[in-house]
Amino acid sequence: RYLVFTENAKIRKLALNCGLIGLSNFFIHKAPCLIIACADLKDNIKINGQDYYLVDTAISFHQMLLYARNYGIESCWLAAFSEKKLKGYLKLPAQWKIVAMAPLGYPAEKKGLYSKAVSGFAKSKDRKSLETIVRFM
Question: Most buried of 38, 93, 107, 128, CB within 10 angstroms?
Fold first, then answer.
C-alpha cells in the first residue's frame, strides 16, 4: 500500500505530524512528492514464525525508488518518524503498518548549505571493509 502526496500544503502539514521534529520532517517539508510505504498485516505471510510484511514492502518500495532514479528523480529512504503519531494523523486502519517514507523530486541545480551538510555527514569515513562484511564460502 502506498500513500502518495503531491500537494505542498499537505506535505508540509504531514511533516509536522511525523513525531520526530527535526528529523524526517526537515527532509520532506519542501518535497514535491512524498510516498509512504505501508503494509497491510492481513496480507502478511508468516513462515516459521517469521513475518514477511517488512521484507515484501521494503523490496517493492526500494524497486520503486530505483525505477524513479532511472528518470533522474532523487529520493531518500526515511524511517525516522513516529509510526503511532503518523498513523493517527493519517487515520490509517489498525492492521496497517508504516514501513518507510521517501520524498521524491528532481535535484536542485545548486545545493544549499543544509543539503551540503547532510551529504557530508552521510559519507561515512568508517566504512567496513569488504572482508569484514563478506565471507566467501
Answer: 38
